[in-house]
Amino acid sequence: MQRVLTLSSNRKPLMPCHPARARRLLREGRASVFRRQPFTIILNDRDDGNVQPVDCRLDPGSRTTGIALVAQGEHGDRLVWAGELTHRSAAIKQSLDSRRSLRRARRVRKTRYRKPRFDNRSRPQGWLAPSLSSRVAQTTTWVRRLTALTPVNAAQVETVRFDTQKLENPDIAGVEYQRGTLFGEELRQYLLTRHNHTCAYCRGQSNDPVLNRDHVLPKALGGTDRVANLVIACRTCNEAKDNIHPQRWIAQLSTSNRRVDRVRADNMARIWSGWRPSLKDAAAVNATRYATGNAVKTLIPDTRFDSGGRTAFNRKQQGHPKAHWVDAACVGERGSSVRISPQHQPLAIKATGWGSRQMQRVDRHGFPRTSTKGARNVQGFQTGDRVEAVVPKGRKAGRYVGRVAVRSSGSFNIQSANGVIQGINHRHCRVIHQADGYTYN
Ligand SMILES: [Zn+2]
Hints:
This protein has about 450 residues and is an alpha+beta fold. The protein has helices at about 20-25, 90-110, 130-150, 165-170, 180-195, 235-240, 245-255, 260-270, 280-300, 310-320, 325-330; strands at about 5, 15, 30-35, 40-45, 55-60, 65-75, 75-85, 150-160, 210-215, 230-235, 305, 340, 345-350, 375-380, 380, 385-390, 400-405, 410-415, 420-425, 430-435, 440.
């Protein structure tokens, strides 16, 4: 069960409490609502309390980042709060691309070709594209918010998919290659990354989503468990290949007329001749995760980095379902034993941004289409505020709760769960949660 974040009367973070307890405290007037999202109460009569160590664990992803707060109690670790943060990398890239193309079109429209003058552009070391740095910024925003509301004293961040050092360790015995060991998970993550999460033989032609590791030279024919003899293959290809020698399989496939068999023959021939996809892009893939980890470290000094192989191993060992927030709870060495209630519902957080700097809407040629944008703040309301509107009479009589879009006329639109309600006068509205760049549900 998602716990309620709790502050003492002097705003010191206390242990998150059970929702039933929070309801009782609010009913008895011993606490007040401090913040709607994440739901936080502030105690009116206590300025201190016992706190246990709380771990902030992160599983940074390209679209969604899992966030978990894990309390270390006497009876082991338990998940107290979880969230899934959805980033807006695609929206950022799209708007920058559209700005670039509009500017370029405007620049060249009535100009002869002029060759580039000089290349004096440079980027600082560790530069990330805006779509990527937004992921880092959004994650640190949430870590900062949560550290102000809970007694977080340490952090665990999944910074890499697999641990290269473990894979290079020559002391690994054959038995450890088996599925269900920590090394086996690291190896699986490595192979999945190397083969870009597609079957090495059919390249996804079979449409089989089940991917497993496969011995290029079957073990029955003397193939080893070494990384060089392993690829990722779908179940269909795995069963079709069976225990046949690669060269014999290529010969068999070459006689087939099926398209998938010809793809398989081509890829098997390349793999048999020693070709493997390169991993040089893996560092770039991990750059954003590392930047996230380092940014978190500036907020929480006791931050440790760990691998996705360990996360997957921890999650599978405990039989937890696959989800970003569950993965976050399983990050790191301590992630091997975390109690997660089956009814736990994480907070869904979606980054919405803060509107645009563009002063006017433009047509498809980049020329102004509307009048200049009005003030951001109208009658004390901002686009993005969560409001409650109670309309006493008329056609739109009723109570509406949702995200408001302000108009300078003072007649607002409210995006509620049942759709958009237009033309609600500001006099009927009341702010529940001020715009903070995110939406929740
Ligand atoms: Zn396949």
